[in-house]
Design a protein that fits this description.
binds ligand C2E; 6-stranded antiparallel β-sheet; Alpha-Beta Plaits; binds calcium ion; 30 helices; single chain; Beta-Lactamase
Length: about 800
C-alpha cells in the first residue's frame, strides 16, 4: 500500500501535472512550431513519470515487460528533442545537417540497447521494498556519456544564446529569460547526475525508490520552462514583437531572393510597390523604369556576390499603379535555409526631397518675382569673376532701381506695388541679354549680371542698359490701367571697375544714384568722379536724417518789394542747413535728396511752423503788417493726404492770419496726380491762404496748370530775369506772362532781380513785385529787422527829399 501511495505521489501526480502543462503550452499558441515542440517534450516527460508509476503499481510480469526499456527509450528521445529545442530557443546559428547530427546522438542509446541487449543490459527486479532497475556497467557508462553529452550541449547553447543577447540591449527580456533557463538547466543537470549516481551507489531503502529520482531532472526543466513562459512569454515573444514591428513599420521591409522576388514583405512595402494582393509575390525589378532596370539588376547581382550593397541609396521607383517615389534603400544579406536573401529596408523620401528642393529654391530665388535673389546673385557673381580671371573676359554688373516706386507703393497700396514689381521683373527679363542673370535684390532694386567675351564690343554694356530702358518705354498694365514706369540704371564692369562682388555692386550702385540725380530714366556708366559725388550724396542723406533733431536747420528771409512804392509786401522763408559734418550745404543740393528720401515732409512742416511763428513775432513787433510770409512746399508734401490739415494746425497754433501765409510750389509738382492736388489747393485757398506758382518759365511750363489752379501769384523764374535787358525772347515771354496774368487777375512777381536795370525793365513791362539781391539777399532774423528799420528810414529820407523837391519847385 505504501509503495502504491508513494508512487502515486512521486510519479502519478507529476504525470498529471505535466499533462496539464503540455496542454497549457499547446493552447497558448497551437500553431507555433516551438510550442508544439515544447508540448511534445513535456508529454514525453509525463510519459516517463507514467512509466515510473506503472513500474511500481502494475503486476510485476507486465511491469517488467514495459520497463525499464520504455523509460529509457523515452529518456533518450527526450534528450534528442531537448537538443532541438534549446538550439532553436537560443537562436545559435548552426547548419541543419550539423544540428541533426548532434541531436541524433542520444538516440544511439536506444539502438545500442536493442542491438546489444547483453552488453547494454537493463532489467527490472523485485527488490526488498521497491521494484529496482538492474543495469550493466556498460549501460551505466553509456547512459552517463549520453546524458553528459546532451547536458553539456544544452548548457552550451543556453550560455551562447545568453551571451549573444547580452550584446544587444534590445533583448533584455530574452536575456532574463535565458538566465532563468541557464539556472534551471544547471540545477536539472546536477540533479540528474547526482540522482543517477545515488541510484547506483546507495543500497535500496524503504522510503523512496531511488530509480525514480533521475526523472525529476525533467520535472525541474519543465518547471523552469513554465516559469520562463509565464514570466517572459518565452516562446514566440521576440518573434511576435518582430512580427508587430514588421507589419506596423512605416518603412517598407522585404526579404528578397537572388532572383529579385520579395518572398516576404510588409504592408508598407506592398503599398509602395502598389500591390494590393497579399498573396502575390513582388518582383522588385518591376519597380524600376526600363532604362534604369538593367543597371539595378547588375548592382543587385553584384550585391549578392559580395553580400553587400551600398547603404542609403536614393532610388526612383515607379510602382504597379504608376506612382513615382523616391526611396532610400538600406540592405543586409542573410542566409536562410541555405539560401542567401537580401533584407531590404526602404523609406519613402519623396516628400522630404520635395521639401528640400523647395527650401533650396527658397534660399536661391525671390518668392515674389521668381528671379534670383541677392544670395544667388552674389554666388553667381563670385563664380563669374572666378571664370573671368581664368579666361580673361569681362563681367558686367548693373543695378536697376525703379523711379518713384515709393510713390506708387504709397498711393496705390502694397499689393499694387507687388504687382508692378512682378511686371517689371518680367520686363527686365525680356530685355536682358539671353545669358544674363537677373536678380531682385530687395524692394524695387534689381541687378543684372552678364559675362562678356573679350572680343565683345566695348559699348556692349551701355547698349544692354539702353535696351532695357527702351523696354520701359512701354506702359505697364496695373489693375486695368496703364502706367509709365521708368528706371535708373548704374553699370560697371569687372575687372576695370572692381574685382570683387562687393566693390562691383557698390560702384554699380553709385552709378545708379548718379543716373537718378541726373534726372532718372537713364543709365550711367561708373567712373571715379561719380564715386566722390555718390559718397557726398550718401553723407548728405545720412546727415539729413538727424538734422532736424540736432537743430541744424535755420531759416533766412528774403524781402519782396513793390518797386513802384518801395514798400515791402512780404518775405520768402528759405531753408538753411548747417551740418555738423558737412558744414554749410546749399538747399539746391540737399532739398532733392530730402525729397527722394521722403525727409522733406517733416522738414517742410518744420519750415512752415517756424516761418509762421516768425511772422507772428514780427507782426506783434510791428515789423510785418499787411504782408505775406511765403513758404516753399515740395511735391511730396502735396501728396501727403494730411497736408491741408497740417496747414490749418500751423495757422491755429501760431495765430497767423491765413491771408498772411503764401505757399509756393512749382507747377511740375502740381501736374502730377492733379485731381487730388487740385482738391487740396481748393481746400487751402478756402482757408484764406495764398498760393503761388514758383519758378515759372523753367522746364515744361504749362499755361494749363496755371490757369486751372487757384494760384494768386506767378513767380517768374530768375532764368528769365537775369538777361531780360539783353534777351528779347525772355522779354517776350515775361510780357506774355504778364498779359495772361492780368487777364486771369493774378499777380506777377519777378525773382532773381539783381540790378537797377532789371527793376526798370520789369517796371516798364508792368511787373512791379520784385524779389532779388537788388533789394536784399536772404537774411537772418536780426538782419532782417535791421533791414526793415533801415529801409523805413531810407523811405522817410526819400520822402523828405521828395517833399523838399516839391516845395522847391
Ligand atoms: P526758390 O524757391 O526759387 O528760391 C529762391 C532762390 O533764389 C533762393 O535760393 C534765393 O537765395 C535765390 N535768389 C534770390 N534772389 C536772387 C538773386 O537776385 N540772384 C540769384 N542768383 N539768386 C537769388 P536758395 O535759398 O539757395 O534756395 C534754392 C531753392 O531751394 C529754392 O528755390 C527752393 O526751391 C528750395 N528751397 C529753399 N528753402 C526751401 C524750403 O523751405 N522748402 C522747400 N521745399 N524748398 C526750399
Ligand atoms: Ca520759392
Ligand atoms: Ca523760385
Amino acid at each position: 500500500m505504501y509503495v502504491f501511495l508513494m508512487s502515486l505521489i512521486l510519479s502519478f501526480i507529476p504525470f498529471i501535472l505535466l499533462g496539464f502543462l503540455a496542454i497549457e503550452i499547446l493552447l497558448r499558441h497551437p500553431n507555433h512550431p516551438l510550442h508544439r515542440l515544447t508540448m511534445v517534450l513535456i508529454v514525453l516527460l509525463a510519459l516517463i513519470f507514467l512509466s515510473d508509476f506503472l513500474t511500481q503499481s502494475l503486476d510485476f510480469p507486465i511491469a517488467s515487460q514495459i520497463n525499464p526499456i520504455t523509460a529509457y527509450v523515452l529518456s533518450f528521445t527526450e534528450l534528442t528533442l531537448l537538443i532541438y529545442f534549446f538550439t532553436i530557443l537560443s537562436r545559435i546559428k548552426i547548419s541543419g545537417i550539423l544540428l541533426h547530427m548532434v541531436a541524433v546522438v542520444p538516440l544511439s542509446g536506444i539502438v545500442l540497447m536493442f542491438l546489444e541487449p547483453d552488453v547494454f543490459h537493463v532489467s527490472l527486479i523485485q527488490g526488498d521494498y521497491w521494484r529496482v532497475e538492474l543495469h550493466s556497467v556498460s549501460f551505466d557508462t553509456m547512459f552517463m556519456v549520453i546524458a553528459c553529452y546532451s547536458l553539456a550541449y544544452l548548457l552550451m547553447t543556453i550560455i551562447f544564446g545568453y551571451r549573444k543577447l547580452k550584446l544587444n540591449r534590445a533583448y533584455l527580456r530574452e536575456q532574463q529569460m535565458m538566465l532563468t533557463m541557464v539556472r534551471g538547466g544547471i540545477v536539472a543537470s546536477i540533479w540528474l547526475i547526482v540522482a543517477f549516481l545515488l541510484g547506483n551507489v546507495l543500497p535500496e531503502n524503504p522510503i523512496v525508490p531511488l530509480n525514480n529520482l533521475p526523472s525529476y531532472a525533467g520535472l525541474i526543466l519543465a518547471c523552469t520552462l513554465r516559469v520562463a513562459m509565464n514570466k517572459y512569454e518565452f516562446l514566440a515573444a521576440a518573434e511576435q514583437r518582430y512580427k508587430l514591428i514588421f507589419s506596423l513599420s512605416s518603412g517598407g521591409i522585404a526579404l528578397v531572393n537572388a532572383a529579385g522576388i520579395a518572398v516576404e514583405s510588409n504592408p508598407a512595402f506592398r503599398e509602395l510597390a502598389g500591390e494590393d494582393d497579399e498573396q502575390r509575390d513582388i518582383d522588385i525589378f518591376e519597380l524600376f523604369s526600363e532604362d534604369s532596370k538593367v543597371r539595378y539588376m547588375y548592382l543587385f547581382e553584384q550585391g549578392f556576390l559580395q553580400k553587400s550593397l551600398p547603404q542609403n541609396m536614393q532610388i526612383q521607383i515607379i510602382n504597379r499603379k504608376g506612382v513615382q517615389y523616391t526611396v532610400e534603400v538600406n540592405s543586409d544579406f542573410l542566409e536562410m535555409e541555405g539560401e542567401v536573401h537580401c533584407y531590404l529596408l526602404i523609406r519613402d523620401i519623396t516628400q522630404q526631397q520635395k521639401d528640400e528642393a523647395r527650401l533650396l529654391e527658397l534660399a536661391y530665388t525671390d518668392s515674389l518675382t521668381g528671379l534670383a535673389n541677392r544670395y544667388q546673385f552674389n554666388l553667381r557673381l563670385e563664380e563669374a569673376l572666378e571664370r573671368s580671371r581664368i579666361y580673361n573676359h569681362r563681367v558686367v554688373v548693373m543695378q536697376m532701381d525703379l523711379d518713384h516706386f515709393k510713390w506708387i507703393n504709397d498711393t496705390m497700396g502694397h499689393s499694387a506695388g507687388d504687382l508692378l514689381l512682378i511686371n517689371v521683373a518680367r520686363l527686365i527679363r525680356q530685355h536682358a541679354p539671353e545669358n544674363s542673370l537677373v536678380a531682385r535684390m530687395g524692394g524695387d532694386e534689381f541687378s543684372l549680371l552678364v559675362e562678356l567675351p573679350t572680343d565683345e564690343d566695348a559699348d556692349a554694356p551701355a547698349e544692354m542698359a539702353s535696351h532695357i530702358l527702351r523696354g520701359f518705354a512701354k506702359q505697364i498694365a496695373l489693375r486695368e490701367k496703364y502706367y509709365h514706369v521708368s528706371c535708373s540704371i548704374g553699370v560697371c564692369t569687372a575687372p576695370l571697375d572692381g574685382g570683387d562682388p562687393e566693390t562691383l555692386l557698390r560702384n554699380a550702385d553709385t552709378a545708379m544714384y548718379a543716373a537718378k540725380q541726373m534726372g532718372r530714366n537713364q543709365y550711367q556708366l561708373f567712373n571715379e568722379t561719380l564715386k566722390s559725388t555718390a559718397e557726398q550724396y550718401l553723407m548728405m542723406q545720412q546727415g539729413l536724417e538727424t538734422a532736424l533733431e540736432n537743430e541744424e536747420f535755420s531759416l533766412v528771409y528774403q524781402p519782396q518789394v513793390d518797386s513802384e512804392t518801395g514798400n515791402m509786401i512780404g518775405a520768402e522763408a528759405l531753408l538753411r542747413w548747417h551740418s555738423a559734418e558737412l558744414g554749410f550745404v546749399s538747399p539746391q543740393d540737399f532739398i532733392p535728396i530730402a525729397e527722394q528720401s521722403g525727409m522733406i515732409r517733416l522738414i517742410g512742416e518744420w519750415v512752415m511752423q517756424e516761418a509762421a511763428e516768425q511772422a507772428v513775432r514780427w507782426m506783434n513787433e510791428g515789423y510785418f503788417t499787411d504782408m505775406q510770409m511765403s513758404v516753399n512746399v515740395s511735391a511730396s508734401q502735396l501728396t501727403d493726404p494730411y497736408f491741408a490739415h497740417k496747414v490749418e494746425t500751423v495757422l491755429k497754433q501760431t495765430g497767423l492770419p491765413p491771408q498772411m501765409l503764401c505757399l509756393e510750389f512749382t507747377e511740375s509738382a502740381a501736374i502730377r496726380e492733379d485731381e487730388q492736388i487740385m482738391a487740396l489747393c481748393n481746400e487751402i485757398v478756402k482757408m484764406g491762404v495764398t498760393l503761388a506758382v514758383d519758378d515759372f518759365g523753367t522746364g515744361y511750363s504749362s499755361m494749363r496748370t496755371v490757369t486751372s489752379f487757384p494760384f494768386h501769384f506767378i513767380k517768374i523764374d530768375r532764368s528769365l530775369v537775369y538777361d531780360i535787358d539783353r534777351n528779347p525772347r525772355n522779354e517776350a515771354v515775361v510780357r506774355s506772362v504778364l498779359e495772361l496774368a492780368e487777364q486771369l487777375g493774378m499777380k506777377v512777381l519777378a525773382e532773381g532781380v539783381e540790378t537797377q536795370q532789371h527793376v526798370h525793365q520789369l517796371l516798364q513791362l508792368g511787373c512791379h513785385y520784385i524779389q532779388g539781391y537788388y533789394y536784399s539777399r536772404p537774411m537772418k532774423t536780426a538782419d532782417f529787422k535791421k533791414w526793415v528799420d533801415d529801409r523805413a528810414l531810407e523811405l522817410k529820407r526819400l520822402e523828405v527829399v521828395e517833399d523838399i523837391r516839391i516845395a522847391g519847385q
